[in-house]
Amino acid sequence: MSFTLAIVGRPNVGKSTLFNRLVGKRLALVDDQPGVTRDRREGDARLFDLHFRVFDTAGLEDVTDDSLEARMRRQTEAAIEQADAALFLVDARAGVTPLDAHFADLMRRARTPVLLAANKCEGKAGEPGLYEAFGLGLGEPIALSAEHGLGMDELYDFLRPLIEAKEGALYPDEDDAEAEADSGEEDEGEEAPRGPVQLAVVGRPNVGKSTLVNRLLGEDRMLTGPEAGITRDSISVDWTWQDRAVRLIDTAGLRRRARIDDKVERLSAADSKRAIDYAQVVVLLLDATLGLEKQDLTIARTVVEEGRALVIALNKWDAVEDRAVALRQVENRLERSFPQTRGIPVVALSALEGRGLDKLMRAVFQAYEIWNKRLATAPLNRWLQAVSAQHPPPAPGGRRIRLKYMTQARSRPPTFAIHCSNPDDLPPSYLRYLENQLRLDFDMPGTPIRIHLKKQK
Ligand code: GDP
Ligand code: GDP
């Protein structure tokens, strides 16, 4: 019996879309109208190196006299009983609805392991819904985008141990090495997920993107994609760099797809936006002979705002006369433009000559690690006490704002919640102070950091 995963959730949260992505075929009908679904679908799913059966719960078209809740309950209970694990989807854009809460109740009572996922989390529109989903009492939700393939490595991290427990280790030899690696780092929470790093190379026309990508992939490198189920639309290429898996987003492929889908010519700005949506780490490639221009800053700002890890690469280094000046100019301009994201890595290279590529990839993996960073609650709260003692928050109307408690709500990018007495009165400058200190004290250069304030009496 192979391992089975049930995808559960109210209509329209994206179950079919996720099913399609995992199964890799257009088996299921996807429709905007709630309730139009169909029979229960089941298929062979593939997620990186994992193989399992997946089904999503039946539709609601069988109108009976029962209440909606009663039918949902029956279906859901049957599904989670039959499955080895369940993925519970909510729609982060729509927020948590009473029906979601009803489902959550069922899920909490199940013996089957449940992973909560907030779908439609590409971009920022999903953020409030992601936070609401915490309130469902099913632990920390993962941020998913079934449509854009985000969150797949978290799903992988959830499934892999369960599948191994049922079917035996996928790579028996690997376990010892992992155990050793685990015992090495303790305080900083979980290690980085094992899925590939999703990488996009963006930049203005002619900076050398194609040259760089061809260099990186090189004819002698192993090309393993596109894989059914993950990169159906062949918008990415899987490859490895010194034994680490990388999924390179193919911007040209994205553009082709957009043209087919929308029948509109897209500007290159839209291409980069799309690549950024798919990526975890974005390399912004510049022509070092031209420096950092306004258009580059706009792209960089989008990367940071979308919460992706950014690496700046200065290409055509071979053609630069005064390298010290060129580097300083870019670094200064970055510092001025991103005072809140100090330490964005800058790497010089020549795609043409194939120089600086190792340095670039090291910077990419390092940025990825920082972006994945997890801080434990105890040191965070010691830190909060220390920084707020050193520089106390203001006291509007004579009542000092108290910062009570802090947790890391999620990673990728590092996102924190601080519970405080009067969040609305805390000035932005104080929040910036906290952010800067946090970045320094916990060594998170260059990554976007988010802090959310929560009211607590
Ligand atoms: P189901 O009823 O739960 O099976 O949901 P569907 O898979 O049919 O999706 C419902 C709607 O949500 C469709 O219009 C999808 O295109 C859309 N959708 C699914 N996943 C995503 C996503 O990750 N992001 C966004 N923005 N829309 C999505
Ligand atoms: P794209 O439009 O960003 O994909 O840029 P291309 O890869 O097509 O490169 C544009 C031009 O820049 C081509 O003539 C390349 O040969 C040249 N080029 C790319 N990388 C380098 C480099 O490292 N040094 C120099 N001198 N020229 C480069």
TrEMBL record:
UniProt KW keywords: GTP-binding, Nucleotide-binding, Repeat, Ribosome biogenesis
Record flagged with keyword Nucleotide-binding: yes
Pfam families: KH_dom-like, MMR_HSR1
Composition bias type Acidic residues, residue spans: 172-190
Residues that coordinate or bind GTP 2: 203-210, 250-254, 315-318
Superkingdom of the source species: Bacteria
Disordered as annotated region, ranges: 169-197
GO biological process terms, semicolon-separated: ribosome biogenesis
PROSITE patterns for this protein: G_ENGA
CDD domains: EngA1, EngA2
EngA-type G domain location: 3-167, 197-372
Gene Ontology molecular function, alphabetical: GTP binding
Binding site for GTP 1: 9-16, 56-60, 119-122
Keyword Magnesium found: no
Function of the protein: GTPase that plays an essential role in the late steps of ribosome biogenesis.
Stored HAMAP family: GTPase_Der
Classification via NCBIfam families: GTPase_EngA, small_GTP
Assembly, per entry: Associates with the 50S ribosomal subunit.
PANTHER family xref list: GTPASE DER
Similarity section: Belongs to the TRAFAC class TrmE-Era-EngA-EngB-Septin-like GTPase superfamily. EngA (Der) GTPase family.
Entry protein name: GTPase Der
Lineage: Bacteria, Pseudomonadati, Pseudomonadota, Alphaproteobacteria, Rhodospirillales
